[in-house]
Amino acid sequence: MNNLTFRCMKNAFLIIIVCLSTVLFSCKKDKDQIIAATEKSDTVNSKLIADNGWPREAENNGTKLVYYQPQIDDWKDYKELTGRLAFSLTPKDGKQVLGVASLKAETLVDKDNRSAFIKNLQVTDVRFPALDEKKIPEMEKLFKETLPQSGDPISVDRILADLSQTKSPPKGITAKNDPPAIFYSTNPSILLIVQGEPVLVPIDKSDIQYVVNTNWDLFFDKTAKDYYLLVDNIWLTSKNIEGKWTKTTKLPSGLNNLPSEQNFDDVKKMIPPPSSGNAPEVFYSNKPAELIAVNGNPEFITIKGTKLMYIDNTENDVFANEADGQYYVLLSGRWFKSKELTGPWSYAGNNLPADFAKIPKDSPRANVLSSVPGTQEANDAVMLSQVPTTAILKKSDAEAKVKVTYDGGTAQFKPIEGTKMQYASNTQEKIIKVGDLYYLCFQAVWFMSTSPNGPWKTADSVPKEIYTIPPSSPVYNVTYVTQTTTDTTVESSSTTGYLGAFIIGATVGAILTYGTGWYYPPYVYYGGLYPIYRPWPYAYGGGAVYNPWTGGYAAGRRVYGPYGAAGTSAWYNPATGRYGRSASVQGWYGGRTAASTYNPWTGNYARTNQGHNAYAQWGHSAATNGNQWAQTGHITTRRGTAVAYQTSGGKEGVITHRRGGGTTVRTNNNLYAGHDGHVYKRDANGNWSHYNNGNGGWTQAGTLGSTKKSGEAIQNRPNQGLGANGAGEKIQRDNLPKNQNLGGETRLGDRTQGNNFNRPEQTLGQPNKPLGEAGRPDITNDLDRSAFSRDRGESQTRNFQNFQHQGGFNGGGFRGGGGFRGRR
């Protein structure tokens, strides 16, 4: 692989090697083999490092620990977790006891797999509600020695489900929400975007030039002064790029000289032109715009329980509201409204009708809920966007890969409005001048130098001024990258703002959108043999669709062009003086469709199984990069298959799978840690019981909606498992079924355990950490939220893993799939 890497980077250093993937100039056979191997490897790895369920089991020198899903209280900066968990602990040759632990830990997040890995876990408190206080120090020591300290994965969805109950979203950025040019058509049509004036690049040995700054295959015949446009399998021609386009079956001979190995193969297949097919209508814009394309007259479908209707025969999300007589359309995560489908349109995000939040979750248009302020889906999108992806890299490795090229040879800088800083304008790299120093953000890692030409060293700190860059600047996305360093490593974190997804709106009702809404004119340099065109990021013109499973926007619909948006169809390699073309959409994670992709926010082309990755240059999954935190492998025992985690500097943990499927450890995930230090469980009716009644049984926590009184004794039913008790039930030890257990071999409540539990007259907990009164309304209300969050987190985790394992990163799994080019 190293030989391939060096060979490809010598030919075209801008092409990024991603996750063992190949590049545009690799031979097709090698490329296909590598891509296939990468996809297979990613599938295996995603299964190994996934959150495979709760509770989990760990063993240490005969001591067995079953620990239940943590209840997360806070995720500071989305890097430091604090929470609590309930557990059962069975010493070697001892009796099982229950407890509650308070925890603090750092996290490393791999957003490709939506997994957070625990790092540097600290146990800040341990409570044993029904244990003799003399035994507490010994049991606390065993618990701390057995609990895995690092590497244990937990689904990001489980964490966010907890936080969604308590954490408010931040205030949005100062975005520009003026509507773009919005075209409307009921005929077959496309949107032709040429950013600024056409940038024409010669084709060798012919009088043909191709337009590099557009989203479709567009050529110019210098001899006849005619433009030629390829739309799927139809060739169109026009004397004026803004004029009327007509179908043609006659092409200039110069098109036969299109070069090979620059992704013109699909174009060459259409020479000579096919005779079948009708010419589409062409809408032209010289800056990012949008197109509402309806297949014939609009077909409206009523949404039950609302006064909304949606247009069914379009790839766009277009609604009609009978209550106010307005049409609404969702573009790049923003809502616009109009009295007529033909416009004019105005921004509607601050005054969206309440019925949008009532769209049923099983509706064909439920995907828009992620962009409806105040919905759970919108809150999830906003929160997920703040979760950083982290990479740990060796400084020497990172510094060796950095290379900066300036068009024309000398760095040129432009001021950043409202600051004293400047940015380099004639390079695709993001270089910020702060005082006399230069800071480079390269593939989500910060470097610094005393010269704009380097050498570049990883930055031990990033000036605070950089994080004041306004959204109106084309380098604004670098403010979403932070990092810390050690003597030999750099730990970098980036959020989705680096890739072009931003939060807008107030604290209540914030949503995630694509792009800042500001227009950044593209850069063109005419100083050499060929013009150099570099597109800046944009908000519109790509048909951006939010994918809730990847947490980002993928772009590309058929009417917007085969490359997703203007500027993504071409790139220039100053090292070779040649142009190439990327035959793919520009979205990330789920956004790939072909050999390579382009992200105008990062300025790089890359091929990766998940589309764009903030750390594509470094060639590893971010969470496992550098220190390889989670080294995983399978083991098989007589009880079934297990996934074992052995982590850097941490303990080993095991997640057991029952034969024939399942993800739990021989019991349900129904123990909870109360803020008062008690262990709780919940029955099917939503009633809570706490484990602290002095004899090792369970007592109802208050009445909690039941007519039974707390402490009322009943006979336990033989087939009733833990967590299924009725309200007010008090389990008598003599009546507990002998086969009932809690994740261990020792039966909970057996007479032989009696010496381990407090007597009624004993004080629960440690003298310096007294337990609170069990079952208070504030505690049970909090437990209700935890139970709801746990159920929702479980559902979201399984849905994502199903999406992932079914090949969802190929573009399926949600509306706008099939490469994100429209409804299938």
What this model shows, in words?
The protein has eight helices and 52 strands. It is of the alpha+beta class. The strands form 15 sheets. Strands 2, 3, 4, 5, 6, 7 and 8 form a seven-stranded antiparallel β-sheet that branches. A six-stranded antiparallel β-sheet has the order 11-12-13-14-15-16, with no helix packed on it. Strands 19-20-21-22-23-24 form a six-stranded antiparallel β-sheet, with no helix packed on it. Residues 706-824 are annotated as: Disordered.
- Distance separating the two termini: 37 Å
Percent range for β-strand residues:
25-35%
Total helices: the number is: 8
Structural class by SSE content: alpha+beta
Which percent range fits the helix content? 10-25%
Mean pLDDT: 75
Biggest sheet statistics:
7 strands, antiparallel
Q: What spatial form do the alpha-carbon principal axes imply?
A: globular
Biased composition (Basic and acidic residues): 782-795
Biased composition (Low complexity): 798-807
Biased composition (Polar residues): 752-766
Region (Disordered): 706-824
What's the structural blueprint in terms of helices and strands?
Layout: H1 2-11, E1 15-16, H2 28-48, E2 56-60, E3 63-67, E4 71-76, E5 80-90, E6 97-110, E7 115-127, H3 136-146, E8 153-155, H4 156-163, E9 181-185, E10 189-193, E11 200-202, E12 208-211, E13 217-221, E14 226-231, E15 234-238, E16 246-247, H5 265-268, E17 281-285, E18 289-293, E19 300-302, E20 308-311, E21 317-321, E22 326-331, E23 334-338, E24 346-347, H6 376-386, E25 389-394, H7 395-401, E26 413-415, E27 422-424, E28 430-434, E29 437-442, E30 445-449, E31 457-458, E32 481-485, E33 489-494, E34 501-504, E35 511-514, E36 523-525, E37 532-534, E38 545-547, E39 552-554, E40 571-573, E41 578-580, E42 597-599, E43 604-606, E44 630-637, E45 640-647, E46 652-658, E47 671-673, E48 679-682, E49 688-690, E50 699-700, E51 765-766, E52 769-770, H8 777-805
Parallel strand pairs: 1-43, 9-18, 10-17
Antiparallel strand pairs: 2-3, 3-5, 4-5, 5-6, 6-7, 7-8, 11-12, 12-13, 13-14, 14-15, 15-16, 19-20, 20-21, 21-22, 22-23, 23-24, 25-33, 26-27, 27-28, 28-29, 29-30, 30-31, 32-33, 34-35, 36-37, 38-39, 40-41, 42-43, 44-45, 45-46, 47-48, 48-49, 49-50, 51-52
